[in-house]
Amino acid sequence: MLGGAVEKRYRRMRPEVETFPWGTLDLSGVPADELVRARLAWTSAAYQEHRTGVDVTEALRLLMQAQAPLDLIALGSRFPLDETVHVELCARMAMEAGGGTEILYDPTRMILGATFEGRPLLQAAELMVRFFCVGEALSIPLLRGTWKAARHPLPRAVLGRIVKDEAAHGTFGYIFLDWAEAQLDRRDRVLLGQAADLAIDAVISQWDEIRRRPKAEWQEGNALAWMSTDAYLELAVRSMNENVLQPLRDRDVPVSRFPNGA
Ligand SMILES: [Fe+2]
Ligand SMILES: [Fe+2]
Q1: Separation of 186 CA from ligand 1 center, angstroms?
Q2: How far is the CA of 52 from the centre of ligand 2 (A)?
Q3: Cα 55 to Cα 52, 83, 217, distances in angstroms
């Protein structure tokens, strides 16, 4: 943070952040390994939000180049700020749990930009499908589930804020596709189906990694409690079917993946 006048102006853009009950988590009864788990989870959430910020900004640039409708672009121009706020919220949660953990990544390879050759509309569509129709659409129900499972007012406030913002992100890709539909031919759609498959494969390999982790102990009343691994994975598979595969197929994007049950 730069602080001073810049921070004040930023705070005025999202005043609710300072009203959250920061500093009220009582972690005295939480075992050390659970604390490390929480620090890791919130730190990697902060990184994911940071990366999503890069995703949405790149998609927005291509939407502008593709001369997407002005009101649609205007709606999406809020997203980089949303993701920036989410980075702060998750990073502060990690601090509340005892501090951020180390994250190693290559900043030149944070995201996979558009790979399709040709017109900006098709490139924009590629990113809209990968980042929004798969990534953001899937994150809405998962975040909502995690929010509902959270007990303490602080994580509830943080997750509640993120869920509110993400509602608009999750439908954005499909609003775009409904507009772009008339300009996409069969070949374009096959390419978009492949782009969706690529993004879905990345999500499925994340699930495999979650499955391999030692099982979290589900402690009712634990200040840090969120969804148990099994409940999360079950919801993830259902959400993939309902929020990603079905809406893509409804729009004639030939996605070929069927995730296995959790
Ligand atoms: Fe976010
Ligand atoms: Fe988002």
Answers
A1: 32
A2: 6
A3: 5, 10, 33
